[in-house]
Amino acid sequence: MNTHGLSFFWTFAAVALTAQGAAHAADSRQSAVILPAPTYADLADLSDQTPLVIKAQVRKVIALEPARAAGVRPGWARVYIEARTEALIAGNRGLGEQLSYLADLRLDPRGKLPSLKKKSVILFARPVAGRPAELQLVAPDAQLAWDAALETRIKAILAELYAPGAPQKVTGVREALHVPGNLADAGETQIFLATASGEPSALTVARSPGGPPRFSASFSEVVGDSGGLPARDTLAWYRLACFLPQQLPARANISDSVEDRAAAARDYRAAISQLGPCERTRS
């Protein structure tokens, strides 16, 4: 577990004993907090390699004393939550009916906690070894207010992630090579991507005189025209738009001439622009 994870996670028994005395104060400071709807990238960030996705109903929310909440962002509070399992959306581990965990919650403009008691939430979490009723969220804010539409969106992303041959994680640009064509303004740039698994992935930008650039993406050994770039808010789009740098790294540009290197950089920028921005509401 990394340092940030250690600052977020304590033994639940000790936390619960300390927090019980603050229960009444926490209840009196709860109100409604309106959060922006999570984007595709927000949900994919939370879903990717999360061991457990759970629907639960909150039963108790207890604010922790500031001394026990190191690293909490301004405008947020760390809380101890007890909840009842409603459904296991993803994961292969059995869950009991009662759950407990820590979470960071955004405060409203008056500095009050959101009112969560008896409300359903979706948790992205990992189990705690030897403590079947306890969870550790994969991020301090990895609890979302449940609604049917959100659950449907999350299930669709999980289906993409678990599908055979799902696009692998892209970690950067390995090489980019521009080959000029026989005619002016013609040519092709192949951009070979680095992936976490080492499997091949590439972008291709082809140009013909007088025509717009043609883009394609590949997550296999076959590189070429595959009908354009992935549609927005799909897993393939997320792997590219959310993890590639905005500019082609100079070290990756192995084109022969100054002109070819400039063309490769231009085509890379065009592909990134075509993919569009990766919007996130989580910080």
Regions with little confidence, pLDDT below 50 for 5+ residues: 1-28
- Portion of residues within helices: 10-25%
Radius of gyration: 23 Å
Task: Name the assembly state.
Answer: single chain
What percent of residues are in strands? 25-35%
Q: In the CATH hierarchy, what is the architecture of the largest domain at level 2?
A: Beta Barrel
Q: Please describe the biggest sheet, giving its number of strands, its sense, and whether it closes into a barrel.
A: 6 strands, antiparallel
Query: Could you tell me the number of beta strands?
Result: 12
Distance between the termini: 21 Å
Under CATH, the topology of the largest domain can be stated as OB fold (Dihydrolipoamide Acetyltransferase, E2P)
By CATH reckoning, the class of the largest domain would read Mainly Beta
Structural classification: alpha+beta
Shape call: elongated
The SSE string, one letter per element, is HHHEHEEEEEEEHEEEEHH
Nearest-integer average pLDDT? 88
Provide a count of the helices.
7
Number of domains: 2
